[in-house]
Protein backbone atom coordinates (compact mmCIF):
# COMPACT_ATOMS: atom_id res chain seq x y z
CA UNK A 1 0.00 0.00 0.00
CA UNK A 2 1.13 3.59 -0.47
CA UNK A 3 3.01 5.15 2.39
CA UNK A 4 2.11 8.43 4.05
CA UNK A 5 4.75 9.83 6.41
CA UNK A 6 3.69 12.28 9.11
CA UNK A 7 6.25 14.94 9.99
CA UNK A 8 6.14 17.80 12.44
CA UNK A 9 7.66 19.37 15.51
CA UNK A 10 6.93 17.95 18.95
CA UNK A 11 3.68 19.24 20.43
CA UNK A 12 2.00 20.18 17.19
CA UNK A 13 -0.35 17.25 17.75
CA UNK A 14 1.12 14.65 15.42
CA UNK A 15 0.24 11.68 17.58
CA UNK A 16 -3.33 12.83 18.09
CA UNK A 17 -3.68 13.33 14.37
CA UNK A 18 -2.17 9.93 13.60
CA UNK A 19 -4.60 8.37 16.04
CA UNK A 20 -7.43 10.11 14.28
CA UNK A 21 -6.26 8.97 10.85
CA UNK A 22 -5.91 5.33 11.84
CA UNK A 23 -9.15 5.75 13.76
CA UNK A 24 -8.25 4.27 17.16
CA UNK A 25 -7.01 1.02 18.13
CA UNK A 26 -3.28 0.71 18.34
CA UNK A 27 -2.56 3.55 20.69
CA UNK A 28 0.12 5.85 19.42
CA UNK A 29 1.81 7.28 22.45
CA UNK A 30 2.35 10.97 22.80
CA UNK A 31 5.78 12.33 22.01
CA UNK A 32 7.91 11.90 25.04
CA UNK A 33 11.58 12.72 25.34
CA UNK A 34 13.81 9.79 24.67
CA UNK A 35 11.05 7.45 23.65
CA UNK A 36 11.77 5.28 20.69
CA UNK A 37 8.95 3.12 19.51
CA UNK A 38 9.07 -0.25 17.91
CA UNK A 39 5.96 0.40 15.94
CA UNK A 40 6.31 3.13 13.40
CA UNK A 41 3.74 2.21 10.80
CA UNK A 42 0.02 1.70 10.99
CA UNK A 43 -2.66 0.59 8.56
CA UNK A 44 -5.30 3.10 7.65
CA UNK A 45 -8.22 3.23 5.24
CA UNK A 46 -10.30 6.12 4.01
CA UNK A 47 -13.10 5.85 1.47
CA UNK A 48 -12.15 2.27 0.81
CA UNK A 49 -8.52 3.04 0.01
CA UNK A 50 -5.85 1.52 2.18
CA UNK A 51 -2.58 3.20 2.97
CA UNK A 52 0.19 2.97 5.52
CA UNK A 53 0.85 5.76 7.97
CA UNK A 54 4.43 6.15 9.13
CA UNK A 55 4.78 8.22 12.26
CA UNK A 56 8.21 9.81 12.31
CA UNK A 57 7.68 11.29 15.75
CA UNK A 58 9.57 8.96 18.04
CA UNK A 59 12.76 10.92 18.46
CA UNK A 60 14.07 12.94 21.32
CA UNK A 61 12.80 16.51 21.06
CA UNK A 62 14.90 17.71 23.98
CA UNK A 63 18.15 17.10 22.24
CA UNK A 64 20.21 19.94 20.86
CA UNK A 65 19.66 21.30 17.38
CA UNK A 66 15.94 20.91 17.01
CA UNK A 67 15.81 22.39 13.53
CA UNK A 68 18.60 20.15 12.34
CA UNK A 69 17.08 17.06 13.78
CA UNK A 70 13.62 17.71 12.50
CA UNK A 71 14.95 18.24 9.01
CA UNK A 72 16.71 14.88 9.33
CA UNK A 73 13.38 13.41 10.30
CA UNK A 74 11.84 14.99 7.23
CA UNK A 75 14.58 13.56 5.03
CA UNK A 76 13.90 10.06 6.22
CA UNK A 77 10.18 10.59 5.77
CA UNK A 78 10.69 11.84 2.25
CA UNK A 79 12.86 8.92 1.30
CA UNK A 80 10.43 6.27 2.52
CA UNK A 81 7.06 7.84 1.76
CA UNK A 82 4.88 8.29 -1.30
CA UNK A 83 3.45 11.46 0.23
CA UNK A 84 4.16 13.53 3.31
CA UNK A 85 1.69 14.97 5.79
CA UNK A 86 3.34 18.00 7.34
CA UNK A 87 1.70 19.08 10.58
CA UNK A 88 2.07 22.60 11.93
CA UNK A 89 0.41 24.35 14.82
CA UNK A 90 -1.85 27.04 13.36
CA UNK A 91 -1.94 28.90 16.67
CA UNK A 92 1.83 29.13 16.97
CA UNK A 93 2.61 29.70 13.31
CA UNK A 94 5.86 28.81 11.59
CA UNK A 95 8.95 28.30 13.69
CA UNK A 96 12.54 27.90 12.55
CA UNK A 97 12.19 24.15 12.92
CA UNK A 98 9.15 24.18 10.64
CA UNK A 99 11.01 26.27 8.10
CA UNK A 100 13.79 23.67 8.03
CA UNK A 101 11.24 21.00 7.19
CA UNK A 102 9.71 23.10 4.45
CA UNK A 103 13.12 23.31 2.77
CA UNK A 104 13.55 19.57 2.75
CA UNK A 105 10.03 18.97 1.52
CA UNK A 106 10.27 21.51 -1.30
CA UNK A 107 13.56 20.08 -2.48
CA UNK A 108 12.18 16.55 -2.54
CA UNK A 109 9.35 17.24 -4.94
CA UNK A 110 7.23 14.72 -3.03
CA UNK A 111 3.52 15.46 -2.74
CA UNK A 112 2.90 17.27 0.53
CA UNK A 113 -0.31 17.81 2.44
CA UNK A 114 -0.06 20.69 4.87
CA UNK A 115 -2.15 20.22 7.99
CA UNK A 116 -2.78 23.34 10.09
CA UNK A 117 -3.61 21.71 13.38
CA UNK A 118 -5.35 23.02 16.46
CA UNK A 119 -7.89 24.92 14.40
CA UNK A 120 -10.68 24.41 16.86
CA UNK A 121 -12.86 27.30 15.74
CA UNK A 122 -13.50 29.70 12.86
CA UNK A 123 -11.20 32.37 14.28
CA UNK A 124 -8.08 30.21 14.13
CA UNK A 125 -9.13 29.15 10.66
CA UNK A 126 -8.34 32.63 9.42
CA UNK A 127 -4.85 32.32 10.87
CA UNK A 128 -4.36 29.04 9.05
CA UNK A 129 -4.82 30.86 5.74
CA UNK A 130 -1.52 32.63 6.40
CA UNK A 131 0.20 29.30 5.84
CA UNK A 132 -0.30 29.62 2.09
CA UNK A 133 2.98 31.55 2.36
CA UNK A 134 4.89 28.33 2.83
CA UNK A 135 4.44 27.47 -0.82
CA UNK A 136 3.23 23.99 -0.02
CA UNK A 137 -0.25 24.52 -1.39
CA UNK A 138 -3.51 24.84 0.45
CA UNK A 139 -3.28 24.55 4.23
CA UNK A 140 -5.83 22.07 5.56
CA UNK A 141 -7.28 23.37 8.81
CA UNK A 142 -7.93 20.57 11.22
CA UNK A 143 -8.53 19.91 14.88
CA UNK A 144 -6.93 16.57 15.60
CA UNK A 145 -8.40 16.71 19.07
CA UNK A 146 -12.02 17.31 18.10
CA UNK A 147 -11.97 15.85 14.61
CA UNK A 148 -12.94 19.09 12.93
CA UNK A 149 -11.79 19.08 9.29
CA UNK A 150 -10.26 15.61 9.47
CA UNK A 151 -12.46 14.27 6.68
CA UNK A 152 -11.34 16.99 4.29
CA UNK A 153 -7.76 16.39 5.35
CA UNK A 154 -8.02 12.69 4.54
CA UNK A 155 -9.55 13.50 1.16
CA UNK A 156 -6.51 15.67 0.47
CA UNK A 157 -4.24 12.85 1.60
CA UNK A 158 -5.85 10.42 -0.85
CA UNK A 159 -5.43 12.91 -3.67
CA UNK A 160 -1.74 13.24 -2.82
CA UNK A 161 -1.03 9.50 -2.66
CA UNK A 162 -0.02 8.13 -6.04
CA UNK A 163 -1.10 4.80 -7.45
CA UNK A 164 1.32 2.71 -5.49
CA UNK A 165 4.31 0.85 -6.84
CA UNK A 166 2.74 -2.24 -5.34
CA UNK A 167 -0.57 -1.88 -7.12
CA UNK A 168 0.92 -0.96 -10.44
CA UNK A 169 3.53 -3.71 -10.29
CA UNK A 170 1.02 -6.36 -9.43
CA UNK A 171 -1.07 -5.29 -12.37
CA UNK A 172 1.90 -5.37 -14.68
CA UNK A 173 3.34 -8.53 -13.18
CA UNK A 174 6.43 -6.44 -12.41
CA UNK A 175 9.56 -7.50 -10.55
CA UNK A 176 9.31 -9.05 -7.11
CA UNK A 177 10.06 -6.63 -4.31
CA UNK A 178 12.71 -7.72 -1.83
CA UNK A 179 13.85 -5.93 1.33
CA UNK A 180 17.29 -6.78 2.70
CA UNK A 181 17.12 -6.13 6.43
CA UNK A 182 19.27 -6.77 9.49
CA UNK A 183 21.46 -5.19 12.10
CA UNK A 184 24.36 -2.93 11.11
CA UNK A 185 27.51 -4.73 9.95
CA UNK A 186 25.95 -8.11 9.32
CA UNK A 187 26.84 -7.77 5.65
CA UNK A 188 23.72 -6.37 3.98
CA UNK A 189 25.59 -4.07 1.69
CA UNK A 190 28.17 -6.75 0.90
CA UNK A 191 25.32 -9.06 -0.08
CA UNK A 192 23.65 -6.40 -2.17
CA UNK A 193 26.89 -5.63 -3.96
CA UNK A 194 27.47 -9.27 -4.80
CA UNK A 195 23.93 -9.65 -6.05
CA UNK A 196 24.07 -6.51 -8.08
CA UNK A 197 27.42 -7.32 -9.67
CA UNK A 198 27.55 -5.49 -12.94
CA UNK A 199 23.82 -5.61 -13.50
CA UNK A 200 23.14 -2.63 -11.36
CA UNK A 201 20.23 -0.50 -12.40
CA UNK A 202 19.26 2.34 -10.15
CA UNK A 203 15.57 3.04 -10.01
CA UNK A 204 14.05 6.25 -8.84
CA UNK A 205 11.02 6.15 -6.62
CA UNK A 206 7.54 6.15 -8.11
CA UNK A 207 7.32 9.90 -8.52
CA UNK A 208 10.77 9.97 -10.06
CA UNK A 209 11.56 13.20 -8.35
CA UNK A 210 13.61 12.46 -5.26
CA UNK A 211 17.26 13.15 -5.11
CA UNK A 212 18.26 9.75 -3.78
CA UNK A 213 17.74 6.60 -5.75
CA UNK A 214 15.76 4.28 -3.55
CA UNK A 215 15.38 0.92 -5.23
CA UNK A 216 17.59 -1.10 -7.49
CA UNK A 217 16.54 -3.49 -10.21
CA UNK A 218 18.75 -6.54 -10.46
CA UNK A 219 18.58 -9.49 -12.84
CA UNK A 220 19.00 -12.80 -11.03
CA UNK A 221 18.36 -16.10 -12.77
CA UNK A 222 17.10 -14.25 -15.78
CA UNK A 223 14.39 -12.45 -13.85
CA UNK A 224 14.22 -8.92 -12.58
CA UNK A 225 14.04 -8.31 -8.84
CA UNK A 226 13.44 -5.02 -7.19
CA UNK A 227 15.55 -4.43 -4.08
CA UNK A 228 13.76 -1.96 -1.86
CA UNK A 229 15.34 1.09 -0.22
CA UNK A 230 18.89 0.22 -1.10
CA UNK A 231 19.80 3.82 -0.36
CA UNK A 232 19.22 2.94 3.28
CA UNK A 233 21.70 0.09 2.98
CA UNK A 234 24.35 1.90 1.00
CA UNK A 235 24.27 5.19 2.78
CA UNK A 236 24.32 5.01 6.54
CA UNK A 237 22.05 7.44 8.28
CA UNK A 238 24.10 10.30 9.58
CA UNK A 239 22.48 11.43 12.76
CA UNK A 240 24.46 10.57 15.85
CA UNK A 241 21.59 10.14 18.27
CA UNK A 242 18.25 8.87 17.12
CA UNK A 243 20.19 6.80 14.61
CA UNK A 244 18.74 3.58 15.90
CA UNK A 245 15.29 5.00 15.56
CA UNK A 246 15.87 6.03 11.96
CA UNK A 247 17.32 2.64 11.16
CA UNK A 248 14.25 0.88 12.54
CA UNK A 249 12.00 3.32 10.72
CA UNK A 250 13.71 2.51 7.45
CA UNK A 251 13.59 -1.19 8.16
CA UNK A 252 9.88 -1.12 8.95
CA UNK A 253 8.99 0.86 5.86
CA UNK A 254 11.21 -1.25 3.61
CA UNK A 255 9.43 -4.35 4.90
CA UNK A 256 6.11 -2.63 4.34
CA UNK A 257 6.97 -1.95 0.71
CA UNK A 258 8.39 -5.41 0.05
CA UNK A 259 6.77 -8.74 -0.65
CA UNK A 260 9.58 -10.73 0.89
CA UNK A 261 12.21 -9.79 3.46
CA UNK A 262 15.69 -11.26 3.66
CA UNK A 263 16.85 -11.04 7.23
CA UNK A 264 20.63 -11.06 7.16
CA UNK A 265 22.15 -12.38 10.38
CA UNK A 266 25.82 -12.51 11.26
CA UNK A 267 26.25 -16.26 11.72
CA UNK A 268 29.37 -15.77 13.82
CA UNK A 269 27.44 -13.77 16.44
CA UNK A 270 24.63 -14.81 18.75
CA UNK A 271 21.12 -14.20 17.45
CA UNK A 272 20.10 -10.92 19.04
CA UNK A 273 17.03 -9.16 20.36
CA UNK A 274 17.17 -6.84 17.42
CA UNK A 275 17.04 -9.77 15.00
CA UNK A 276 13.94 -10.94 16.82
CA UNK A 277 12.35 -7.52 16.63
CA UNK A 278 12.87 -7.41 12.90
CA UNK A 279 11.32 -10.86 12.60
CA UNK A 280 8.32 -9.64 14.58
CA UNK A 281 8.00 -6.66 12.23
CA UNK A 282 7.99 -8.98 9.22
CA UNK A 283 5.33 -11.16 10.83
CA UNK A 284 3.17 -8.20 11.78
CA UNK A 285 3.41 -6.83 8.27
CA UNK A 286 2.46 -10.26 6.91
CA UNK A 287 5.41 -10.52 4.56
CA UNK A 288 7.32 -13.57 3.39
CA UNK A 289 10.65 -14.19 5.12
CA UNK A 290 14.00 -15.75 4.30
CA UNK A 291 16.79 -15.88 6.87
CA UNK A 292 20.36 -15.64 5.59
CA UNK A 293 23.17 -16.53 7.97
CA UNK A 294 26.08 -14.56 6.60
CA UNK A 295 29.81 -14.68 7.37
CA UNK A 296 29.69 -18.45 7.22
CA UNK A 297 33.46 -18.37 6.66
CA UNK A 298 33.75 -17.41 10.34
CA UNK A 299 31.47 -20.17 11.61
CA UNK A 300 33.49 -23.05 13.05
CA UNK A 301 32.28 -26.32 14.57
CA UNK A 302 31.83 -24.87 17.98
CA UNK A 303 29.93 -21.82 16.78
CA UNK A 304 27.82 -24.10 14.62
CA UNK A 305 26.85 -26.07 17.71
CA UNK A 306 25.67 -22.98 19.55
CA UNK A 307 23.97 -21.54 16.51
CA UNK A 308 21.86 -24.66 16.14
CA UNK A 309 20.76 -24.26 19.76
CA UNK A 310 19.98 -20.58 19.24
CA UNK A 311 17.92 -21.37 16.17
CA UNK A 312 15.90 -23.90 18.17
CA UNK A 313 15.39 -21.46 21.00
CA UNK A 314 15.02 -18.07 19.30
CA UNK A 315 13.58 -18.87 15.90
CA UNK A 316 10.80 -21.32 16.80
CA UNK A 317 8.18 -18.78 15.85
CA UNK A 318 9.51 -18.71 12.31
CA UNK A 319 10.51 -22.32 11.83
CA UNK A 320 8.79 -22.05 8.49
CA UNK A 321 11.29 -19.50 7.12
CA UNK A 322 13.85 -20.90 4.67
CA UNK A 323 17.36 -20.58 6.14
CA UNK A 324 20.46 -20.33 4.04
CA UNK A 325 24.13 -20.03 4.97
CA UNK A 326 26.34 -17.85 2.86
CA UNK A 327 29.47 -15.74 2.69
CA UNK A 328 28.58 -12.46 1.06
CA UNK A 329 32.21 -11.39 0.94
CA UNK A 330 33.22 -14.16 -1.43
CA UNK A 331 29.87 -14.95 -2.97
CA UNK A 332 29.84 -18.48 -1.58
CA UNK A 333 26.28 -19.95 -1.65
CA UNK A 334 24.87 -16.69 -2.80
CA UNK A 335 23.15 -18.59 -5.60
CA UNK A 336 20.94 -20.17 -2.96
CA UNK A 337 19.12 -16.94 -2.34
CA UNK A 338 16.84 -16.97 -5.38
CA UNK A 339 15.50 -20.50 -4.79
CA UNK A 340 14.79 -19.52 -1.17
CA UNK A 341 13.01 -16.35 -2.30
CA UNK A 342 10.97 -18.35 -4.80
CA UNK A 343 9.98 -20.87 -2.14
CA UNK A 344 8.94 -18.15 0.30
CA UNK A 345 6.96 -16.22 -2.31
CA UNK A 346 5.34 -19.45 -3.42
CA UNK A 347 4.17 -20.15 0.12
CA UNK A 348 3.05 -16.58 0.54
CA UNK A 349 0.78 -16.83 -2.48
CA UNK A 350 -0.56 -20.33 -1.91
CA UNK A 351 -4.32 -20.60 -2.27
CA UNK A 352 -6.29 -23.54 -0.98
CA UNK A 353 -9.62 -24.17 -2.67
CA UNK A 354 -12.70 -24.10 -0.46
CA UNK A 355 -13.61 -27.71 -1.21
CA UNK A 356 -10.15 -29.06 -0.45
CA UNK A 357 -9.89 -26.91 2.65
CA UNK A 358 -13.16 -28.17 4.09
CA UNK A 359 -12.44 -31.81 3.50
CA UNK A 360 -9.09 -31.23 5.21
CA UNK A 361 -10.83 -29.44 8.12
CA UNK A 362 -13.41 -32.24 8.34
CA UNK A 363 -10.66 -34.81 8.75
CA UNK A 364 -8.84 -32.61 11.24
CA UNK A 365 -11.92 -32.14 13.41
CA UNK A 366 -12.70 -35.86 13.32
CA UNK A 367 -9.18 -36.86 14.29
CA UNK A 368 -8.56 -34.17 16.81
CA UNK A 369 -11.70 -32.51 18.18
CA UNK A 370 -11.48 -29.41 20.31
CA UNK A 371 -11.48 -30.25 24.04
CA UNK A 372 -14.80 -29.82 25.83
CA UNK A 373 -15.00 -26.59 27.81
CA UNK A 374 -17.71 -25.86 30.38
CA UNK A 375 -19.84 -28.67 29.05
CA UNK A 376 -19.62 -27.39 25.48
CA UNK A 377 -17.50 -28.41 22.56
CA UNK A 378 -16.25 -25.62 20.34
CA UNK A 379 -16.11 -26.80 16.76
CA UNK A 380 -14.99 -25.70 13.31
CA UNK A 381 -18.04 -25.66 11.04
CA UNK A 382 -16.61 -24.32 7.83
CA UNK A 383 -13.52 -22.56 6.55
CA UNK A 384 -12.45 -20.38 3.66
CA UNK A 385 -9.27 -18.72 2.54
CA UNK A 386 -10.36 -15.25 1.48
CA UNK A 387 -6.88 -14.03 0.63
CA UNK A 388 -3.23 -14.84 0.03
CA UNK A 389 -0.09 -12.76 0.57
CA UNK A 390 -0.06 -13.90 3.34
CA UNK A 391 -2.47 -16.83 3.36
CA UNK A 392 -5.42 -15.83 5.51
CA UNK A 393 -8.07 -18.24 6.70
CA UNK A 394 -11.45 -17.59 8.25
CA UNK A 395 -12.96 -20.37 10.34
CA UNK A 396 -16.67 -20.26 11.11
CA UNK A 397 -17.12 -21.98 14.42
CA UNK A 398 -19.61 -22.87 17.06
CA UNK A 399 -18.12 -21.62 20.28
CA UNK A 400 -14.73 -20.00 20.60
CA UNK A 401 -11.62 -21.98 19.74
CA UNK A 402 -8.74 -21.79 22.17
CA UNK A 403 -5.43 -20.27 21.11
CA UNK A 404 -3.70 -23.63 21.50
CA UNK A 405 -6.22 -25.24 19.15
CA UNK A 406 -5.69 -22.49 16.59
CA UNK A 407 -1.96 -23.16 16.79
CA UNK A 408 -2.68 -26.82 16.20
CA UNK A 409 -4.78 -25.96 13.14
CA UNK A 410 -1.94 -23.81 11.82
CA UNK A 411 0.55 -26.62 12.35
CA UNK A 412 -1.65 -29.10 10.49
CA UNK A 413 -2.29 -26.61 7.68
CA UNK A 414 1.45 -26.21 7.29
CA UNK A 415 1.99 -29.97 7.23
CA UNK A 416 -0.66 -30.32 4.57
CA UNK A 417 0.03 -27.36 2.31
CA UNK A 418 3.57 -26.24 3.07
CA UNK A 419 3.28 -22.47 3.46
CA UNK A 420 7.04 -22.24 3.39
CA UNK A 421 8.41 -18.80 4.20
CA UNK A 422 5.13 -17.17 5.12
CA UNK A 423 3.09 -16.23 8.15
CA UNK A 424 -0.35 -17.86 8.12
CA UNK A 425 -3.25 -15.92 9.59
CA UNK A 426 -6.25 -17.70 11.05
CA UNK A 427 -9.32 -15.76 12.14
CA UNK A 428 -12.36 -17.30 13.75
CA UNK A 429 -15.95 -16.19 13.51
CA UNK A 430 -17.95 -17.88 16.25
CA UNK A 431 -21.63 -18.38 15.42
CA UNK A 432 -23.15 -17.92 18.82
P1 LIG B 1 25.92 -3.89 6.59
O1 LIG B 1 26.08 -2.84 7.62
O2 LIG B 1 24.95 -4.92 7.05
O3 LIG B 1 25.62 -3.40 5.24
O4 LIG B 1 27.32 -4.68 6.52
P2 LIG B 1 28.54 -4.54 5.48
O5 LIG B 1 28.18 -5.19 4.20
O6 LIG B 1 28.98 -3.14 5.45
O7 LIG B 1 29.63 -5.47 6.18
C1 LIG B 1 30.14 -5.19 7.46
C2 LIG B 1 31.52 -5.82 7.58
O8 LIG B 1 31.40 -7.25 7.53
C3 LIG B 1 32.46 -5.42 6.48
O9 LIG B 1 33.73 -5.27 7.04
C4 LIG B 1 32.43 -6.61 5.54
O10 LIG B 1 33.62 -6.74 4.79
C5 LIG B 1 32.24 -7.76 6.49
N1 LIG B 1 31.57 -8.90 5.85
C6 LIG B 1 30.47 -8.86 5.08
N2 LIG B 1 30.16 -10.11 4.64
C7 LIG B 1 31.08 -10.95 5.17
C8 LIG B 1 31.29 -12.36 5.09
O11 LIG B 1 30.55 -13.12 4.47
N3 LIG B 1 32.35 -12.86 5.81
C9 LIG B 1 33.17 -12.06 6.52
N4 LIG B 1 34.18 -12.64 7.18
N5 LIG B 1 33.00 -10.74 6.61
C10 LIG B 1 31.98 -10.17 5.94
UniProtKB/TrEMBL annotation:
Cited HAMAP family: GTPase_Der
Annotated binding of GTP 2, by residue: 182-189, 229-233, 294-297
Keywords: GTP-binding, Nucleotide-binding, Repeat, Ribosome biogenesis
Oligomeric and partner information: Associates with the 50S ribosomal subunit.
Alphabetized InterPro entries for the sequence: AAA+_ATPase, G_ENGA, GTP-bd, GTPase_Der, KH_dom-like, KH_dom-like_a/b, P-loop_NTPase, Small_GTP-bd
Any one GO biological process: ribosome biogenesis
Pfam families: KH_dom-like (PF14714), MMR_HSR1 (PF01926)
Protein name (Swiss-Prot/TrEMBL): GTPase Der
GO terms for MF: GTP binding; ribosome binding
Domain EngA-type G: 2-165, 176-349
Family under the similarity heading: Belongs to the TRAFAC class TrmE-Era-EngA-EngB-Septin-like GTPase superfamily. EngA (Der) GTPase family.
Residues involved in GTP 1 binding: 8-15, 55-59, 117-120
Its biological purpose: GTPase that plays an essential role in the late steps of ribosome biogenesis.
Amino acid sequence: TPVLAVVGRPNVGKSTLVNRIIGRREAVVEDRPGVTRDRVSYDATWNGRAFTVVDTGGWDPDARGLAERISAQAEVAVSVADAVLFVVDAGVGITDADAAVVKVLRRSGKPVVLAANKVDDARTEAEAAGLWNLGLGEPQPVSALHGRGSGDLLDAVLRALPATPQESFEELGGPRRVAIVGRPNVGKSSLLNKLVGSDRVVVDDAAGTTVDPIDELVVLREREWRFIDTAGIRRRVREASGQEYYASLRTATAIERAEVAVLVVDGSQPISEQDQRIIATVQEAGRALVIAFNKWDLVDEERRYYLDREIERDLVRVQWAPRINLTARTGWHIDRLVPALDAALGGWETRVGTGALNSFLGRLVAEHPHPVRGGKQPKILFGTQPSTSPPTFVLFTSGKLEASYLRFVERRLREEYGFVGTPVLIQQKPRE
